[in-house]
Design brief:
The protein is mainly beta. The chain has two domains: about 120 residues, Cupredoxins -  blue copper proteins (Immunoglobulin-like); about 200 residues, Immunoglobulin-like (Sandwich), CATH 2.60.40.420. Helix content is about 5%, strand content about 40%. The strands form five sheets. Strands 1, 3, 6, 8, 9 and 10 form a six-stranded mixed sheet that branches. The radius of gyration is 23 Å and the shape is globular. The mean pLDDT is about 95.
Length: about 375
Amino acid sequence: MHGGSWTETFRLKVKPGKTYLLRLINAALNDELFFSIANHTLVTVEADATYVKPFKSNVIVITPGQTTNVLLNTKPHYPNTTFFMLATPYFTGLGTFDNSTVAGILEYTNPFGSINAPNLKPTLPATNATSFVANFSSKLRSLNNAKYPSNVPQNIGKSFFFTVGIGSSPCPKNQSCQGPNNSSKFAASMNNISFALPSVALLQQHYLFRENNKSVYTTDFPVVPLDPFNYTGTPPNNTRVSNGTKTVVIPYNTSVQVVLQDTSILGAESHPFHLHGFNFYVVGQGFGNFNSSADPAKFNLVDPVERNTVGVPSGGWLAIRFLADNPGVWLMHCHFDVHLSWGLRMAWIVEDGKLPNQKLPPPPPDLPKC
């Protein structure tokens, strides 16, 4: 927990009877976090730089890359107590993880001088408290008022269904790999495609492709799984993924819906997904396999939360919508650094619009070359 020093315990000094705005950022590489302050209630008012309907909770959930603003109302009088601020990981996968607790201290200004005050610790959910995470996420709603309307797309131009999860790839000869067995290494994929980074930046490739008709990426990323299976049931025997630099092309100003479906191939796990270039609306989520006939009727198209990073439920699914009004090449990826390195990402290519301000500008003349 960082507030200016990496060598000392962070202390947040407050006065009684005040309201403080805390800006929280999960800067962890591979941990979704529970956060709480002992004997204090937090009021969530913002998520990813977008206002939400305020709601109270003793514990908040925040994934890597997410930001949240909360209001902290201090005690009306000096409590003669210091309060621990703790953060612990939320984790549901099969591998090892850092189960340490990070701590800071909420310290009231003492009007009586220095007194050794007792410390109180908050109670945090269990590490695998998926139901708590789902309940917290369901409370996040946009304001949807005249000043801050919810512009969630009501009609969909393009719809996609992407599975997300962990798989395996062959371990290269004469190497030692971290994987499910001695002959394989862990990999991660969307629709069973593990994204291979090109030697030249995707955006640069996209712009130059229009001039020389050459590219190192393809535009055939599957819009649905090529081999459907019981995504959250008994996993298939074959855990191997395919590799490729595959993208999806969508016309400018298209209303897009994406369902992200977790899989249990090598263990169901929550995946915090981040989309570059756009905010999106979280219109639905649930556990088990997404039901395309029944689940869309339950979507929230009135006041869904607007975010740029969201956790796909462990053993479940999540639906988002966004308007593709920003031309260029935009990654969508898991915000766990280890999963990102294993290939859990894909890229959208949003084509130019008709007007000058709807077109991708050329690279600057001083752009450094790789």
